[in-house]
Amino acid sequence: MLKIEQKKVFEGNDLETTLEKVREDFKVQSNEEISYKIIQEPSKGFLGIGKKPIILEAYLNEQYLINRVNEFLESILYYFEEEVDIKIKCHNKTITIYLEGESLGKIIGKQGRNLGALQHLVMIYVNRMTDTKFDVRLDVGEYRKKRKKNLELIAEQAAKRAIITNTKVELSPMFAFERKAIHEYIKNNYPKLASVSVGLEPYRKVVIYPSRNGKRRY
Question: Distance of CA 119 to CAs 13, 32, 122, 173, Å?
Answer without folding.
Answer: 45, 26, 5, 16
